């Protein structure tokens, strides 16, 4: 079963007027993992699709939604998957790829049958991003051994973190989709600080490994007109190209960042000095 939503893009001048409820309704995704369902959110920000797939008692096949007007899901798209749960498997046109926790799979345009399932008794949680694609690149599994890993931040600033660049153009070929996983060290709570924007691409954040009764305050908006959204484990948030994307938690956590747009240079950022945020 597929559960799908559609979200429009928003002008920053309109977002300034949103109430807390309106802000959450338009940018926050709260129920990504539904038992034995595929949850998809199609956003007009670079036409990225954000999704969660939770096969508990049966395999789940990725089917095209009405919004795609396609014969199969990847007819004009590419797909990135990161497993944030127990061992799982993905069958791509008959070829099986097993994904352990924090491992990724890139699937190129043109693959017709994509099936998600468990391995043994463990429960996989498949988080996905999908973007339009105009050529086909090979399906490739990426583990932390193949990833580009960067250490950033300092404990004295509460932002020491490990960035795992998994599905990025320095690791493998994609059309426009870029995905990675950031892990905050114990004692650190700030992510993506100093903040930045990049008007050449949008971004989506998915927070996980956040303990019960803990929260992350995700900051968004233009640098001189910021807003915040309180989030809990296994929730995602959309970040427009004009918005900062940063957060601070009541404990350490991990998050997946996914990007789509015209520029795939990871360092393409318009930095904002911390003292200039408002």
From TrEMBL:
SUPFAM superfamilies from the entry? RmlC-like cupins
Q: Which coenzyme or cofactor does it need?
A: Zn(2+)
Reaction(s) the record says it catalyses: 5-dehydro-4-deoxy-D-glucuronate = 3-deoxy-D-glycero-2,5-hexodiulosonate
BP term (GO), one: D-galacturonate catabolic process
What EC number(s) would the UniProt record show? 5.3.1.17
* Cofactor binding note of this UniProt entry: Binds 1 zinc ion per subunit.
**Is this entry keyworded Zinc?**
yes
Q: What are the UniProt keywords, alphabetically?
A: Isomerase, Metal-binding, Zinc
Q: Name one Pfam family in it.
A: KduI
Q: Is Transmembrane helix set as a keyword in this record? A: no
Q: Which residues participate in Zn(2+) binding? A: 196, 198, 203, 245
Top-rank lineage group of the source organism: Bacteria
Q: In which pathway does it act?
A: Glycan metabolism; pectin degradation; 2-dehydro-3-deoxy-D-gluconate from pectin: step 4/5
Q: Which GO terms describe its molecular function?
A: 4-deoxy-L-threo-5-hexosulose-uronate ketol-isomerase activity; zinc ion binding
Regarding protein family, the annotation reads: Belongs to the KduI family.
Q: What does this protein do?
A: Catalyzes the isomerization of 5-dehydro-4-deoxy-D-glucuronate to 3-deoxy-D-glycero-2,5-hexodiulosonate.
UniProt cross-references to PANTHER family, sorted A to Z? 4-DEOXY-L-THREO-5-HEXOSULOSE-URONATE KETOL-ISOMERASE
Q: What is this protein's record name?
A: 4-deoxy-L-threo-5-hexosulose-uronate ketol-isomerase
Q: Which organism is it from?
A: Algoriella xinjiangensis
